[in-house]
Design a protein that fits this description.
Elements lengths: L1 H30 L6 H22 L4 H25 L13 H31 L7
Helix pairs in contact: 1-2, 1-4, 2-3, 3-4
Length: 139
């Protein structure tokens, strides 16, 4: 049971930190007038913002394994989306193409931190799910 509580607290902390960085990144987007299109806004709302909160909520119920799977999928989706648009796809959303400045610095830093947090979350979810079979509370 102690292991389950650690998983819940870990995931909750990761979700909170992730959301705070997402909000900071969103402020930088607004200040730099970088507007995602409609499908990107929908993806951001559902996968990057709401999905991790749903996953965290599921972890605090009897549906811990489903919560871990949702957390893994949303963090993997967030990671792929963010890395693609912030570092590979040319355009105003590419952090590597922005000139130095206050909001540009926040944009670049938050994009980098999102990639780090999401990579860590994906790794943690994979590790936790791999070990879930050994612990009956995550079935």
């Amino acid at each position: 049971m102690e292991n389950l509580m650690k998983k819940r607290i870990t995931a909750t902390l990761v979700v909170i930190v992730h959301l705070l960085v997402v909000l900071g990144h969103g402020v930088a987007h607004e200040q730099l007038h970088i507007q995602p299109n409609i499908w990107q806004r929908t993806f951001i709302a559902l996968v990057i913002f709401i999905g991790p909160v749903v996953a965290m909520t599921l972890l605090w119920t009897r549906l811990q394994k489903m919560g871990l799977v949702v957390f893994l999928l949303t963090m993997a989706g967030s990671l792929f989306f963010g890395v693609a648009y912030h570092f590979f796809v040319p355009g105003s959303d590419n952090a590597l193409e922005l000139s130095p400045g206050h909001w540009e610095s926040l944009f670049k830093t938050s994009a980098t931190w999102l990639a780090v947090i999401e990579t860590g979350a994906v790794a943690w979810c994979v590790w936790t799910l791999k070990n879930a079979g050994r612990h009956k509370e995550c079935r």
